[in-house]
Every structure is written in C-alpha cells, then in structure tokens.
Specification:
Elements: E1 4-10, E2 14-21, E3 28-35, E4 43-48, E5 51-56, H1 64-76, E6 90-97, E7 107-108, H2 111-123, H3 125-141, E8 146-151, H4 161-164, H5 170-176, H6 185-199, E9 208-213, E10 217-223, E11 226-230, H7 253-257, H8 276-283, H9 286-291, H10 307-330, E12 337-341, H11 342-347, H12 349-358, H13 368-373, E13 381-383, E14 393-397, H14 418-422, E15 429-436, E16 439-448, H15 453-459
Helix pairs in contact: 2-3, 10-12
The chain binds adenosine-5'-diphosphate, acetylphosphate and magnesium ion.
The site of adenosine-5'-diphosphate (ADP) has 15 residues, from helix 11.
C-alpha cells in the first residue's frame, strides 16, 4: 500500500495533524486537532472521510508532545483508517516550525540541522519550543520516518535589506541574528498561489496586501509574488496585537510596566527560558488583557458587551488600517487585491466591512451580501468586492497551514508531485536532490526552472 505524509502544526496551545495520501494530487485522509492544551479541558476535533467528531478530553495533556502522541495513537488506532495503521505507513513527517532563522527552504532533520534549530529555539522559545519537542520525539520514536521542517519565516527571505534591518549596532545585530524575519509564511504562500490562480494571474505578477489574522495576527505586502514587508519582526510579537500579544509598543514601556522585566518568568522551565518581559507582552496582553476574552468573536459584534470590547475592536482596526495605508504606498498603488485570511479574517464580516469602509480612499469597496455570507466550505477564495470595477479586489481566502508538506518550499524535500512544481514560479537556478522515478534519490543535480508553471509543464525540468 502506498505510504502517507503526515503534516504537523504545533502551536503554543494547539496541535493539528493531517495525514495525506502519497498520491498526485494528495488527498487528506484524516484531520485531527487538540486545542486548549494550556487551559484544560483540551478539546479534540477529528475528521476522517465523512466522519466528524468533537469531544472534551478527560486525559490530561500538559504539553504539545503529549497531545501529538495522543493524536497519533487515535489515528493509528482507528479501525476505519486502514491507510494509517502504524508508523510503517508514513513516508515523511512535515513539521510547521515558526522561526527558521536564515533558512530559505525546508530542511530534513538530522543531527546537524536539529543542532542548528536548537540555536533558533533560544531566539523564539515561545514559538519554536513545542514544534521542536515534537520533532525530537519523532526522531527518537519514529526513527525510520524522515522528518522535514518547514518554516513560517522562509517566505519572507525576499524582504529588502532596508526593511529587515533594525537601526541598532550592526555588529551585535549580525552576531545575534537580530533582524526582521516575519512569520505566517506557509499561510501567505498558500494564499498567494490560491489568489493568483483565482485572479488568473501569474504568481510573479501578483501584488497583494494579505492579512493573516487569528489569535496571532500579521499582514504582508506582496509585490510581484514576493514578500516585500510584513508586520511581524524578530519574533511574532511585533506588529498587530493578538489574542494575548501586545503587538508593537514602545520597547521601553515594559521597563515602566515592571522592574522585573529582565528576570526569568515563572513560566520558564528547565528546557525553555523566557523573560518576564516576553511573558507579559506575549501572553498577558492583547484582547485577553483588554477584555478578559481571547475570543475575537465576542469582540467583533455590532453591540459590544462593554466599552473595553469596543476599544479592543477599534485598536485592531486602527493598527490594520495603518499597515494597509503604508503597504499601499510601498506597492506604489499597484494592487491586485486585499485579502482577509485567518480565523478572524475569514469569519468576521464586521471587521472586514469596517476596515474596507475606512480604506475607501484606496478604491476598496465591499459587497455587503457577499461579505455577510462569507465563503462556502469548499470555496478557497471568495471575491467580496462591490461591482466589477477596476479597483483592487477585496477577497477572503480560507487559508491552509496544514498543506505544509506541499508548500513551494517543500518541493525539494518531497517526492516529485507535478502539483508541487506547479507552485514554482521562480526563474532562479536551484540545486535539488535528483529524483529517481517517483522517489527521492541521493545524487545532486542542477535543475533550471522556467518562469511559471506553464513553462514548467511545457519543458518538464531540464537538467
Ligand atoms: N465569527 C468570528 N468573528 C470574529 N472572530 C472569530 C470568529 N470565529 C472565530 N474567530 C476568532 O478567530 C481566532 C482564531 O483564529 P485562527 O486563525 O484559527 O487561530 P490560531 O492563530 O490559533 O491558528 C480566535 O480569536 C477566534 O475567536
Ligand atoms: C507566527 C504565529 O504567530 O503563529 P500563530 O498565529 O499560529 O500563533
Ligand atoms: Mg495560527
């Protein structure tokens, strides 16, 4: 029986896994997620074929590793899932890792790469720790299955130097890797491809402002199919506020907030060190601090339950509006569309309407009926612009961070699906592992790719 590919998306409070068939195109076999790991009881969502199931778990799952183990056992133990009965049925495990430092592409896990990623863990402990705990677990307990890590930051390697450089001592900046990296790149890359296809434009000619707004929120300016700026920075704390994150503030604020800022936070463990300042700004701020809830659905309502809820909504709108204005200018006004994605972007008609109304001067307009209805289950991209005019489109994209293994950064490490090559729009020279038949070989050869998928399909890939 052909093997499957397992995609893992580990967050600070949730772990989502999807098994895909090793087919072309890949098909999702089972989707399973545990949320609320840090705030029990945890909830399990399980979907396989037509079966959908949600339950509160009695088991105490204190860590992302525990949740991952539970999910694996659940899938392997499902008598109706003959395709994934054990680790022997899995060819690759593809892990979403938020911070990939200078990595431009996905990497296969071995002792060297794991050592390097350990270094990055110190730079972004809040975001990389859970994912790397699962990578370590897979290496130890599923040693025959190759693990490949895909990074949120890779998509933003194209950000120009003046945008990614912080104006601080450059020797220290370089020695410590202090620069803007940007995140949510797996999502942006999925959105870019989906929207370009929807607009019938080549990816490399597509200009977008994309919002990935969920519990963690960011926005990205994409010019000619490349990220030219994004709101997150060295870590996912910068830029927009989120469920528990402050977003950008005056950095000196934290020293007025507490004189303990530089000390280790009580939330640190022997393996993971975070400062009190990081803990406050990442975990004790955002909607939670303003309103008591992390659920934006309770905030984005026509009649907010309190002044604080209204304020939280207005702050979010203000910050996003500021970025849209800035990115519109950075894109020289040449904009194909503004895209809403992420839990809030996809679900909150009120937020979309409020923002588009505030950006009317850029030629944005929304169709209220289409906006209120939102996208159907199977609709990846939905146009909610008013009229068929020439202005930039207003779009919703139901993003998918689980397609991590099928991302354009993953083609190199995975067997050759034509679908993967469809995603490649670059004209650069790439060095890849040679492919024997359908599987990865070990020789290395140079492949020159034509510009865009049409060329690729016409020429195959030339060695
Ligand atoms: N109808 C809605 N209106 C506004 N926000 C919503 C709605 N439904 C879900 N959300 C918000 O979406 C956020 C989760 O987004 P998601 O992208 O799934 O999160 P995560 O960053 O955890 O992956 C939560 O803050 C949730 O409250
Ligand atoms: C990068 C980031 O903030 O991720 P998430 O939205 O999953 O928290
Ligand atoms: Mg997310």
């Amino acid at each position: 029986m052909p093997k499957s590919i397992l995609a893992v998306n580990a967050g600070s409070s949730s772990v989502k896994i999807t098994f895909y068939t090793f087919d072309n195109p890949p098909r999702s076999i089972v989707d399973a997620a545990i949320s609320g790991i840090t705030a029990p009881p945890s909830t399990l969502k399980y979907q396989a074929g037509g079966r959908k199931h949600k339950e509160e778990l009695k088991e105490k799952l204190g860590t992302a590793q525990d949740a991952f183990k539970y999910l694996l056992q659940r899938c392997f133990g499902d008598p109706e899932l003959s395709e994934v009965a054990s680790a022997d049925d899995v060819e690759y495990i593809c892990h979403r890792v938020v911070h990939g430092g200078d990595y431009r592409d996905a990497v296969e896990i071995n002792d060297d790469t794991l050592g390097h990623l350990k270094g990055l863990e110190d730079l972004a402990p809040l975001h990389n720790f859970s994912a790397l705990e699962i990578v370590r677990l897979c290496k130890a307990e599923l040693p025959k299955v190759k693990s490949i890590t895909f990074f949120d930051s890779s998509f933003h390697q194209t950000i120009p130097e003046a945008v990614r450089t912080y104006p601080i001592n450059q020797e220290i900046a370089k020695a410590n890797g202090l620069r803007k990296y940007g995140f949510h790149g797996i999502s942006y890359s999925f959105i870019l491809r989906s929207v370009a296809q929807f607009l019938n434009k080549p990816v490399e000619k597509t200009n977008l402002i994309v919002m990935h707004i969920g519990s963690g929120a960011s926005i990205c300016a994409i010019k000619d199919g490349k990220s030219v700026d994004t709101s997150m920075g060295l870590t996912p704390l910068a830029g927009l506020p989120g469920a528990t994150r402050s977003g950008s503030i005056d950095p000196s604020l934290v020293f007025h907030y507490t004189n303990e800022a530089g000390k280790l936070s009580p939330a640190s463990t022997s393996e993971m060190h975070i400062s009190t300042a990081e803990d406050i700004l990442n975990k004790q701020s955002g909607w939670k601090a303003l309103t008591g809830t992390t659920d934006f659905a309770q905030i984005a309502v026509p009649n907010p339950p309190s002044e604080a809820h209204k304020l939280a909504f207005d702050i979010f709108v203000d910050r996003i509006q500021g970025y849209i204005g800035s990115y519109y200018v950075k894109l020289n006004g040449e904009l194909d569309g503004v895209v809403f994605a992420g839990g809030i972007g996809e679900k909150s008609a009120l937020l979309r309407r409020t923002l588009v109304d505030k950006c009317q001067c850029l030629g944005l307009a929304i169709d209220d009926v289409a906006n209120d209805k939102g996208p159907g289950d199977e609709e990846t991209v939905k146009d909610i612009s008013k009229g068929s005019g020439k202005g930039p489109r207003v779009l919703i994209c139901q993003t998918n961070e689980q397609v991590v293994g099928f991302d354009s950064f993953g083609w190199k490490a995975l067997p050759r699906f034509p679908k993967l090559f469809d995603c490649l729009q670059d004209t650069e020279e790439w060095t890849i592992d040679a492919i024997e038949g359908d599987r990865l070989g070990t020789e290395v050869s140079t492949v020159v790719l034509g510009p865009g998928s049409a060329d690729l399909q016409a020429s195959g890939f030339r060695q």
